[in-house]
Amino acid sequence: MAELAGLKIVPGYLARPQQEALLEELRDLVRAAPFFTPVMPRTGRPFSVRMTNCGPLGWVSDISGYRYQPAHPATGKPWPPMPATLLSAWQELAGYPHPPQACLVNYYAAGARMGLHQDRDEEDFAAPVLSLSLGDEALFRIGGTSRRGPTRSFRLASGDALVLGGEARLAYHGVDRILAGSSSLLSDGGRINLTLRRVTPPSEGAPDEPETEMSRAP
Ligand SMILES: O=C(O)CCC(=O)C(=O)O
């Protein structure tokens, strides 16, 4: 298939020590905002991937639909802040002048997968989606902007970065499978994928981050 404009793969963007440091930060994050199992809208069928988020907004899926919300669905608490490593990865790779508002943290155990989909729950497609991989390799599949078009697949390894911008921003993509045992980063195996997104368009004079409990006037 033809090369998709705006698809950028940066193999080994995070070196092993940076991956380990990020993993430590994710451990704290998951203590504050535990992984939950999202379910498909309408059917309630559980995803095989477990999820949590950090940043002002987080992506969730439940019986009533897909959406971004400022709080964890089980604890009701605001999502933890995004680690600095993620914000600087965005600055280096996104080529977009406003910060990300949501970072979805996906955990794939050995048998987990993610079906082909477009990321289109955001209001702002001008910003790219930036994804970072940690742990076992994934067989990642990407097509074009129509569901039935040709696709191709490649491996994403621990530390790799992937940017879906421009034409690729609305490309269908998914994870066919995880190559169990291909990385020693996570002691229990599996893969963590961090997906950074801008949710709303920046508006003049508006803060980049939505109001938080702390900033809200009494
Ligand atoms: O795990 C990945 O590499 C892809 C994740 C993804 O497509 C998503 O969270 O929308």
Quick take:
By secondary structure, the chain is α+β, with helices and mostly antiparallel strands.
Layout of helices and strands, plus pairs?
Blueprint (H helix, E strand, L loop, with lengths): L6 E4 L5 H17 L17 E5 L3 E5 L2 E5 L14 H10 L8 E7 L5 E4 L11 E7 L1 E6 L9 E5 L4 E4 L8 E7 L11 E7 L21
Antiparallel strand pairs: 1-10, 2-5, 3-4, 5-12, 6-11, 7-10, 7-12, 8-9, 8-11
Bound molecules: 2-oxoglutaric acid.
Question: What ligands can be seen in this structure?
Answer: 2-oxoglutaric acid
Tell me the number of structural domains. Answer: 1
CATH architecture: Sandwich
Helices and strands, in order, run as EHEEEHEEEEEEEE
Structure in words:
The protein has 218 residues and is of the alpha+beta class. The chain has two helices and twelve strands; from the N terminus they run E-H-E-E-E-H-E-E-E-E-E-E-E-E. The protein has helices at 16-32, 84-93, and strands at 7-10, 50-54, 58-62, 65-69, 102-108, 114-117, 129-135, 137-142, 152-156, 161-164, 173-179, 191-197. A hairpin with a 2-residue loop joins strand 3 and strand 4 (65-69). Bound molecules: 2-oxoglutaric acid. Residues 104, 106, 114, 119, 131, 138, 140, 156, 173, 175, 193, 195 line the site of 2-oxoglutaric acid (AKG). The site of 2-oxoglutaric acid has 12 residues, from strand 5, strand 8, strand 11 and strand 12.
What tags apply to this protein structure?
binds 2-oxoglutaric acid; disordered C terminus; 2 helices; six-stranded antiparallel β-sheet; alpha+beta; globular; Jelly Rolls
